[in-house]
Specification:
This protein folds into two domains: about 160 residues, 3-Layer(aba) Sandwich (Rossmann fold), CATH 3.40.50.720; about 190 residues, Dihydrodipicolinate Reductase, domain 2. Helix content is about 30%, strand content about 25%. The strands form two sheets. Strands 8-9-10-7-11-12-13-14 form an eight-stranded mixed β-sheet, with helices on one face. The longest helix is centred in the C-terminal third of the chain and has 18 residues. With about 375 residues, the protein is α/β, with parallel strands linked by helices. The model has no long low-confidence stretch (mean pLDDT about 95). The protein contains eleven helices and 14 strands. It binds NADP nicotinamide-adenine-dinucleotide phosphate. The site of NADP nicotinamide-adenine-dinucleotide phosphate has 22 residues, from helix 1. It catalyses: D-xylose + NADP(+) = D-xylono-1,5-lactone + NADPH + H(+). One of its GO terms (molecular function) is D-xylose 1-dehydrogenase (NADP+) activity. It comes from Recurvomyces mirabilis.
Length: about 375
């Protein structure tokens, strides 16, 4: 019989809606039979009516409990896992609230504002014997799993370089002056790096670092970056970085090392005409060929394996489509992973181990420091009072 995870949804904004709709999709539509999900409760800091309106909008079952505050949600005995969907400026406080109430946690990306906060969350999860997942959803897609397998199989040779561009093509003044969007608000830890650049880093890490056996993984030995700020709020609007590793995948030991070039921007676009004419958003380049990821780096739906031309006339490009079943967003894959880990009593997922998640936060700290991007003390702090 399938294990059923009972979820509590903390916050009712844009991504909470997408995630909850995905949770409510029948797992059988994606071939999942061993785990299932129920939305046990929803909480909004804007009041119970907002929680109720959210539950109605996502078509949650009528018995879903709606709370007008997060404190009530984390106390609910019918909730196993709390999904944190507040702005990342507040993940530290809200994740701690859930962990201290004895709940497993799936926390939206980036898990915190900085590595110091993330470290405290992981220590607290360990101390309280609770599962904690850094919800970078792309990692759990079958597409990502397949690409990691292609790398470890050696089919494209030694991976020496990865490029990844996550740029949205949005007008900064429109985002801020007209829409007052969270993602360009300094007080809510806005900026391209933390909001979307994390996906470029995700691709660099899941290809150059995660594909190595755990014993051979080594942290980056050099990080260089360039950051352009939006003068109206001080957040980064355009950031490029090079992350170098002493190792290369899949063997780790050729001595050549490898590097990832990550790009992220609000005003520039990965896919300017939204028809894919700019080519792949991620290129994973090896000595025998490359893997090209098509679609935005956070939600790609196909990839190509392109062998290096070496005079072989039979060489052919392989294109693999990875559509999202049942019209879903693709967030159900991370939910399934969380449910399986909780069922098995695991504290962390092998797809996104705590030490790797922490390392990624350290890389982002480093890039922010180089660019002089500091958030207000109230949200950089590890002291909640
Ligand atoms: N995985 C993805 O693809 C993806 C996509 C977008 C965003 N995200 C991440 O998910 C998080 C939420 O993003 P979002 O786009 O859903 O944001 P959003 O639409 O602004 O929603 C955030 C929600 O958090 C709650 N909240 C609590 N304290 C708040 C505060 N001080 N200011 C504003 N809202 C506050 C509010 O819900 P209540 O009023 O109900 O409490 C609000 O609706 C961010 O960390 C973001 O990086 C992930």
């Amino acid at each position: 019989m399938a294990f059923t995870a009972r979820w509590g949804i903390l916050a009712t904004g844009w991504i909470a809606e997408k995630f909850t709709i995905d949770l409510l999709i029948d797992p059988a539509t994606r071939g999942t039979a061993d785990v299932a999900h129920v939305v046990a409760a929803v909480a909004s800091s804007s009041g119970e009516a907002q929680a109720r309106s959210f539950a109605t909008k996502v078509k949650a079952p009528h018995d879903t409990v709606c709370y007008g505050g997060y404190e009530d949600l984390v106390k609910d005995k019918n909730v196993d896992i709390v999904y944190i969907a507040s702005p990342h400026s507040h993940h530290f406080a809200h994740a701690l609230l859930a962990l201290n109430a004895g709940k497993h946690v799936v926390c939206e990306k980036p898990i915190t504002v900085n590595a110091r906060q993330a470290e405290i969350l992981y220590k607290t999860a360990k101390k309280n014997n609770l599962f904690f997942l850094d919800a970078v959803w792309t990692r759990y897609f079958p597409l990502s799993v397949q690409i990691r397998q292609i790398i470890t199989s050696g089919e494209v040779g030694e991976i020496l370089r990865v490029t990844a561009d996550t740029s949205m093509g949005e007008e900064m003044d429109d985002l801020w002056k007209r829409q007052k969007r969270r993602k360009v608000n300094l007080d809510l830890a806005g900026g391209a790096l933390l909001e979307i650049g994390i996906y470029s880093i995700t691709w660099i890490f899941q290809t150059l670092y995660h594909t190595l056996p755990a014993s051979k993984r080594q942290p980056p030995n050099k990080i260089m970056s360039h950051m352009v700020k939006y003068p109206e709020t001080g957040v980064d609007e355009d950031t490029t970085f090079i992350v170098s590793f002493p190792t290369s995948s899949p063997s780790g030991s050729s001595g050549r090392g490898s590097h990832g070039v990550g790009m992220t921007a609000f005003p520039l676009a990965t896919d300017p005409d939204q028809r894919g004419t700019a080519g792949p958003s991620v290129r994973i380049q090896g000595t025998k060929g490359e893997i090209q990821v098509l679609g935005m780096p956070f939600q790609p739906d196909r990839y190509k394996v392109v062998p290096l031309r070496d005079g072989d006339a039979t060489m052919s490009v392989r294109e693999v489509l990875c559509p999202f079943p049942a019209g879903g967003h693709g967030m159900y894959y991370e939910a399934d992973e969380a449910a399986r880990c909780v069922r098995e009593g695991k504290l962390e997922s092998e797809t996104m181990p705590w030490d790797e998640s922490l390392l990624i936060m350290k890389v982002m700290d480093d890039i922010r420091e180089q660019g002089g991007l500091k958030y207000p003390d109230a949200i950089e702090s590890t002291d909640l009072h």
